[in-house]
Design a protein that fits this description.
Protein name: AtpZ/AtpI family protein
Number of strands: 0
Helix content: over 70%
Largest sheet: none
Organism: Rothia amarae
Oligomer: single chain
Strand content: under 5%
Keywords: Membrane, Transmembrane, Transmembrane helix
Shape: elongated
Length: 86
């Protein structure tokens, strides 16, 4: 197979974790960073929504979204710092 027929899936056969993708940078790192934040917001918003239903309040869902965003950014920061030390 010559170079012009090489497909994108033939290049990188090594599986990488999400943390390695974030610390590696590039498009995959940016996508994983966004994914960490979005999943964090979605998960903790759902937890907050459930607590709002349980306690009859309307503000815990926003607190959950804030905690989820902070948690997502912390995970990205953690993986970036881990990359610098290893």
């Amino acid at each position: 197979m010559n170079q012009s027929q090489k497909k994108w899936w033939d290049g990188d056969k090594e599986l990488r974790s999400a943390g390695e993708l974030v610390s590696g940078g590039g498009i995959s790192g940016a996508f994983m960073t966004l994914l960490y934040v979005v999943i964090g917001i979605a998960f903790w918003s759902l937890v907050g929504y459930g607590l709002d239903l349980l306690f009859g309040t309307r503000w815990i869902v926003w607190l959950g979204a804030l905690i989820g965003a902070a948690g997502g950014f912390y995970l990205v920061y953690y993986h970036m710092q881990h990359r610098k030390t290893s």
